[in-house]
Amino acid sequence: MKRFTICAAIVFLLTPTLLLSQTTTEEENEDLQGIMRRLAEGAAKAYVNPIVSGFGTNLNSGWFHRAPWATMFGFDFEFGLVGMATQFQDENRSFTSGGSFRFTDEQATFLAQQSNAPAQYQADVKNAILSQEFQVTFNGPTIVGKKADSLRVGFPGKTITVNTSAGQQTYTLPAQLFALPVTGLLEDAPAFPLGTPQLTIGTILGSQFTFRYLPDVEIDEKVGSFKFFGWGIQHNPMVWFGEDALPFEVSLGYFTQNLKVGSLMDVKASAFGINASARLGWGFLNLTPYVGYMKESSTIDFTYELEVATPTGPVMQPIAFGLESENTSRLTFGLSIKILLINVNADVNLGKYKAYSAGVMIII
Predict the structure, then answer these.
(1) I need a surface site. Which of 32, 141, 200, 306 has the fewest CB within 10 A?
(2) Angle, CA 265 vertex, CA 264 and CA 270 arms, to 5°
(3) CA distance 252 to 243
(4) Looking at per-residue confidence, does 294 or 317 come out higher?
């Protein structure tokens, strides 16, 4: 039963499951949570930024493949799977930014040795380094970058004042470039995939209701479980003007969902807009082209603990921040094909990030 539950999670999370659960030893491959614990807020934001837009764009995809009928009451039932993939560009694979940084015990020891401090005062210099943050530059792969690449921290050097047994002394720390054990996890992935079961029922007063849901599934003992639920409504306003008011179907829609992965990630996404479709053929065999325009938004809140070296030993520092998706609107162009009770559809979504979605549904 536990194995079946994990498989169900993989159907939904696909690549994200690989990010958040360890598939090898920590020495061979670290998970996302392990990497985040090495990154202060500034570097962490830049590192995970591509999947923020990836998650949000995906979650706002695949909600519709036709507009509901302009009927007061009818029976429509659809159930199946929807897959989405957000395309990445080369600019999403690496980043350069500045920010504050706390050196590790090993790095502080090295800097103290490289300073102009006498040997008897190098321990004092090291403790002074571990007691403060320094402004540095970050350069390296994002989460969708190469595994062979690593994050580099550029320290421009600084003169610091140190309390020693001889009183306050001033020493110069030289400029250095440090490589951190932080690499890309998705190995130049061309796109970020997701998948979800989806149920649509209707029609009531020209409206259909769509639901996405998976029960709590534990990904990993350290990460915890993920929770997912989403719902949406489409309404055909032509129901109030007669079924033949337009030669095609049109609807207004609103969709929202929430995904939570343990204590690490809390994803919220919503979209609203208009779409239209026209059925060509019969009820049991038809083609349905559809188009849509939506305004959208999504955010991911990250919460984790950063391991910080101090003169008295390592301590855990709580970090929390939120990021918004860069996708704010989209145009959708798609086509559905229905044969008997099976409907297959695919569409392309054009926005800041390009996304693709497809679905296989049983329609009654």
Answers:
(1) 306
(2) 170
(3) 16
(4) 294
Q: What is the pLDDT of residue 146?
A: 86
What does 83-119 look like in DSSP terms, one character per residue? EEEEEP-GGGSEEEEEEEE---HHHHHHHHHHSS--G
Classify residue 124 by its DSSP letter.
H
pLDDT one-digit tens code per residue, 291-308: 999 999 999 999 988 888
Given a contact cutoff of 8 angstroms between Cβ atoms, the answer to whether 219 and 21 are in contact is yes
The pTM of this model reads 0.85
Whether residue 14 is predicted with pLDDT greater than 70 in this model: the reply is no
Q: How many domains does the chain have?
A: 2
**Residues 117 and 246 placed together within one structural domain of the fold:** no
Residue 4: partners with Cβ closer than 8 Å, 6 or more residues away: none
Neighbouring C-beta atoms of residue 360, cutoff 10 Å: 12
Q: Which residue has the tokens 């009183």?
A: 167
Final residue belonging to a domain, choices 179, 205, 222? 179
- One domain for residues 21 and 157: no
Q: Which domain holds residue 29?
A: 2-37+63-88+190-307+326-363
- Tell me how crowded residue 127 is: count the other CB atoms within 10 A of its CB: 16
Q: For residue 211, what are its two tokens?
A: 């639901």
CA 237 distance to own-chain centroid:
34
Tokens of 89: 């560009």
Sole residue written with tokens 């949570």: 33
